Amino acid sequence: MDKKVFGDLMRFANKDERPTGHVMPVELPRIHDPRGDLTVIEGGEHVPFDIARVYFLYNVPVDSERGGHAHKELEQVLFALSGSFRVITDDGSVKQEFWLRDPRRGLYISRRVWREIDSFSQGAVVMVLASMRYDEGDYFRDYGQFLSAVSNLS
Ligand code: T46
Questions:
Q1: Parallel, antiparallel, or unpaired for β 95-100 and 36-38?
Q2: Ligand 1: which atom is nearest the Cα of residue 76?
Q3: Which residues pair with 109 in a beta bridge?
Q4: Which of 6, 33, 79, 95 is the most exposed place for a label (fewest CB within 10 A)?
Q5: Is the distance from CB of 42 to CB of 84 less than 8 angstroms?
Q6: Which atom of ligand 1 lies at the shortest distance from residue 71's CA?
Q7: What is the dihedral of CA 24, 29, 35, 36, to 10 degrees?
Q8: What is the pLDDT of residues 75-127, one digit of tens each?
Q9: Residues 6+ apart with CB under 8 A from 146
Q10: Candidate of 51, 53, 54, 55 to mutate for ligand 1, largest count of ligand atoms within 8 Å of Cβ
Q11: CB-based contacts of 90: which residues, under 8 Å, 6+ apart?
Q12: Best residue for ligand 1 mutational test, from 51, 134, 136, 146 (most atoms within 8 Å of Cβ)
């Protein structure tokens, strides 16, 4: 696998140099042989941050709504390891909609992006690679506070 997956972001080893409010679909390479497919991702090598945490969402009811927050410093990449779901992102001015349904095609979400996740298929599994360990203090859980914070940046 090469560094093209995350393109220009890989140039910025220092997180403060990476853009905020940035969302980007990524497609990981696939190593195929008759036994099946293999996809690998190594922190700092194939994603623009060292992976500090991995978590996954499963047994998600199809009508569940997750997210509804943004992060101050955390960067993440979301994958649909199984099934599918929708992610709506909002940088404070532009909203975008993404459908994840292929384990190789993920979504990079920088810091300072509001996200909402819904429309889960039966049996969907969401895997998340995160740049930091869990810290409740890193969340904007109030949309008004998020908007104030991003408007102060610009
Ligand atoms: C995101 C989406 C995809 C922990 O204790 N450790 C953790 O690492 C996480 C992620 C959560 N928690 C606790 C905090 C809450 O008591 O688990 C509970 C549910 O967390 P939350 O409401 O944040 O879950 P989601 O699915 O709405 O959001 C999570 C991430 O927080 C978020 O960054 O992008 O998954």
A1: unpaired
A2: 34
A3: 23, 76
A4: 33
A5: no
A6: 33
A7: 20
A8: 999 999 999 999 999 999 999 999 999 999 999 999 999 999 999 999 999 99
A9: 69, 70, 92, 112, 114, 140
A10: 55
A11: 96, 113, 114, 115, 116
A12: 134
| Per-residue model confidence as pLDDT tens digits over 113-125 | 999 999 999 999 9
> Whose alpha carbon is nearest atom 35 of ligand 1?
67
Identify which of 55, 69, 57 has the alpha carbon closest to the alpha carbon of residue 115: 69
Which three-class secondary structure state does DSSP give residue 30?
coil
> Are 119 and 128 contacting, i.e. CB atoms less than 8 angstroms apart?
no
Lookup result for tokens 């220092």: 14
Q: How far apart are the first and last CA of the chain?
A: 36
Residue keyed to tokens 């599918």? 84
* Tokens read off for 145: 């506070």
